[in-house]
Amino acid sequence: MILRPFYYYDRGCAAYLCGCGTFGQCAVVDARVDDVNEYMAFAASKHMRITHVIDTHIHADHRSSARELAQRTGAGYYLHESADAASFTPLRDGDGIELGNTRVKVLHTPGHSPESVCLLVTDLRRGPDPWFVLTGDTLFVGAVGRPDLPGHARENAAELYASLHEKLLRTPR
Q1: Share of the chain above pLDDT 70, in %
Q2: Residue 161: which residues within 8 A CB-CB, separation 6 or more?
Q3: Are the beta carbons of 96 and 89 closer than 8 angstroms?
Q4: Structural domain total, the chain
């Protein structure tokens, strides 16, 4: 598996490119504005084709270039089915995405935003167990995502608590 994080410390964000070098397929997760060429160049340097572009959530603090990246590469653009957006392929809780020897399982984790998802990633060359999870803005090192951005903070906090305790804390370790 090839995994390349793109950290933007000055913006408090992260994007990821992950996929299978053997089959040359990859996904870009949470693509940031102004970085489309960087993702495309890295994929090309590894002889990979971007086949999936996934946003873990959408709202004002997440400035995405996912649609542009999908359009320029011919990849599909993916969001959770509850997203208030147009022209995307819907993801549902439990869906799987195949990228050669890399498998991605979708976990719907509302709370930070209604459509938030986390992505449980397995590298079949390493074994059948998940290797890592991309949590978007649901979970950070030492913190959780803000439940107050889309409004209804109390209800969103309850959803975030459930997402953490009923989904993320139950993932295989």
Answers
A1: 95
A2: 111
A3: no
A4: 1
